[in-house]
Specification:
Helix 1 runs antiparallel to helix 2. This protein is mainly α. The protein is built from 5 helices and no strands. The radius of gyration is 30 Å and the shape is elongated. The termini are far apart. 5% of the residues are buried. The longest helix has 29 residues. The mean pLDDT is 82. It is a multi-pass membrane protein. One of its GO terms (molecular function) is inorganic cation transmembrane transporter activity. This is Magnesium transporter. Its main location: endoplasmic reticulum. Keywords: Endoplasmic reticulum, Membrane, Signal, Transmembrane, Transmembrane helix.
């Protein structure tokens, strides 16, 4: 439950920071000073939104799965693993695939 709250707060804070940036840049443009840095409160709000978003996404993620060979073999049988094809080679097909049409082999 708290992870969804963090994600919602992060989204709202990021949208507010974006709107504040737009207002600030509009004000600078109206004053004829297009250069200038963003106020620190907008920067801090953006960083806070990033941290809240990362925390909310981390808490909202499902638990990690075990990816070892032993856990993979729990899902499969030895018969299923041994029934795979062996080493496949294409040497015998090469003469037919790469033969020119004038050879008459095709």
């Amino acid at each position: 439950m708290i992870e969804k709250l963090f994600l919602t707060l992060a989204t709202l804070a990021l949208l507010h920071a974006a709107y504040s940036t737009y207002e600030h840049l509009s004000l600078l443009k109206a004053l004829g000073k297009p250069e200038g840095s963003l106020p620190l409160d907008i920067v801090y709000e953006s960083i806070l939104a990033l941290i809240l978003g990362l925390l909310g996404a981390s808490l909202n993620a499902p638990p990690l799965k075990d990816i070892t060979w032993a856990s993979e073999m729990k899902k499969r049988t030895i018969d299923g693993m041994d029934s795979r094809l062996g080493f496949a080679h294409y040497k015998s097909r090469g003469k037919f695939l790469f033969a020119s049409p004038h050879d008459g082999k095709i």
